[in-house]
Amino acid sequence: MLLSCPRRLAGICGCIFFLISCGYRFAGDPSLPSGDAPVHVPLFSSRSVEAAVGNLFANDLSAELRRNGVTVRSGPDAAVFSGRIDFIKSDTAAREGLLSSVERRITVTLSVTLSDPDGNHLWKAEKLEESDTYTVMTEKAATDANKIEALGRISRRFAERIFDMAEQTGVAMRMQGFGAKKREGGGDDKGWDDRASGPKRP
Q: In Å, how far from its chain's centre is CA 191?
């Protein structure tokens, strides 16, 4: 459903607030708009066999946003932080003798995109990678439990990293520029990625 221009502007301005509410400030611009903008974090899609991990990663990113004062809920006025788990791999980190693995390393690679309420991509980061290790036990169930704990640590680190990257690469300023284009009725949104230039913290 298409939103009216005021609704779209409200969504974009609200997204700006979700960053500035976490301490982001722009020098010489004391009059940025504010508001309690909702952000939706859907289940991370997965190309791996560990599809259930997508729920873990989405929940941890939602928790990180809430921890920083962001309203997390779905709706036509909500920005969307979507994620895709590209790869999950596990290899030996330590051995006991020639054949027995006593510690394994699990590595997760994922990509994330922040979109405004109309679906326009405002920021993305691709092929982010985090790793952790877990102990191999004699019982498979115990090993699996250790692996899940390692994935949980990875997920929480990703959540913090994604939020910090979105904040530090100038997403809010790009949103402000995008909102101006909408008000003027011109220009197509081409999106931005984590390599784009933007204002940095002083």
A: 16
